[in-house]
Amino acid sequence: MELEEMRGRLTRFVQTKLDDPTAEVVSIEPGPGHAGFSYLFEVASGGDTKGYFIRLPPPGVKWEGTADVLRQATAVRALEGTDVPHAKVIWSGDDLKWFDCPYIVQERIEGDVARGDWVLQLSQETRRDMAKQAMTALAGIHRVDWESKCQYLGDFWGFEFDVTRWNRFYDRAAEPERLALQPRVKELLLQKIPENTRIGLYHGDFQWANLMFSPQGKLLAVIDWELCGIGATLNDVGWICAFNDPSAWASNRTIGEGVMPHGDELQEMYIEAWGEDPGDISWFKALATYKFSIISGFNLMLHRRGKRPDPQWEETAMSMTPNMEYALRMLGG
């Protein structure tokens, strides 16, 4: 949607929602990372100017899964009344008269995600405190009363599904020789399915690029809830811990080693915040790199065939084998 068309639609929208016929959208720009279906905008109303963020489903896709913005609205609203920093949902709905699709509008957070050169300028002590804030927030997410607040997100489909759902992507991956360990890792994942693991609300992509901080290192919001769902909450812990363990990655892939704490330290921070032993985190570390390795191969295929060009996957693919080797170690294989 062109910016001027979106400005017009947003103007009519906020005039109605704010009950102010003089409300005006004074600025609008594409949102970072989601150009074309998310926007940052400012509204002048009643002598005040406020910033907002709107997300719409990507054009031309079914409004389900990651494209169902009402799932994201459900998850973020479930955080209201908790200590988890988040961008408050101001409006959401499926009335097609505004944007021809469902929408979610949140308050705009003035901060930056925890990656890039600005983080390197902070002291090691500050960065460690940022990590502790993040893992404390993650424990807070996992404590949400999901059964009463997140019914829209559906039910947990089971651990076996969490493992086997990647089969169809594996079958289409480029450079399948990099995934030679996949059958063995998959076998062990299915053999060692954890017991007594907490089921609840999970973020789905809990990592530094989805955590907004102030310039001084204060956590302002956990953002980007497209992959949220109901399932084993340790999925989030395994994900961020594996992504911050250099042994899981090829030497040419920058994952922030020396910038933020090692995955093992993040794990200890989470356990401290949770207050008790949360269960077998190693299994979820293995699942994290297992599925990311397959995702890398699949996206490399899409890139090379010109279906979704992104040369970054050429570099990321170098970690496909190290990812599988790491998963095997986590499973004791």
Structural overview:
- The protein is α+β, with helices and mostly antiparallel strands.
- Helix content is 41%, strand content 15%.
- The protein has 2 domains: 105 residues, Phosphorylase Kinase, domain 1 (2-Layer Sandwich); 219 residues, Alpha-Beta Complex (Aminoglycoside 3'-phosphotransferase, Chain: A, domain 2), CATH 3.90.1200.10.
- It has 14 helices and 10 strands.
- Helix 9 runs antiparallel to helix 12, helix 10 runs antiparallel to helix 11 and helix 10 crosses helix 12.
- The longest helix is centred in the C-terminal third of the chain and has 24 residues.
- It is globular, with a radius of gyration of 21 Å.
- The model has no long low-confidence stretch (mean pLDDT 95).
List the keywords.
five-stranded antiparallel β-sheet; Aminoglycoside 3'-phosphotransferase, Chain: A, domain 2; alpha+beta; Phosphorylase Kinase, domain 1; 333 residues
In short:
The protein has 333 residues and is of the alpha+beta class. The protein is built from 14 helices and ten strands.
Kindly report how far apart the N and C termini lie: 50 Å
Output the helix-strand order: HEEEHEHEEHHHHHHEEEEHHHHH
Find the CATH superfamily of the largest domain: Aminoglycoside phosphotransferase (APH), C-terminal lobe
Tell me the overall shape: globular
Q: How many extended strands?
A: 10
Structural class: alpha+beta
Percent helix, as a range, is: 40-55%
In DSSP terms, counting alpha (H) and pi (I) runs of 4 or more, how many helices? 14
Strand order of the largest sheet: 1-2-3-5-4
- Total domains: 2
Amount of beta strand: 15-25%
Mean pLDDT: 95
Assigned CATH architecture of the largest domain? Alpha-Beta Complex
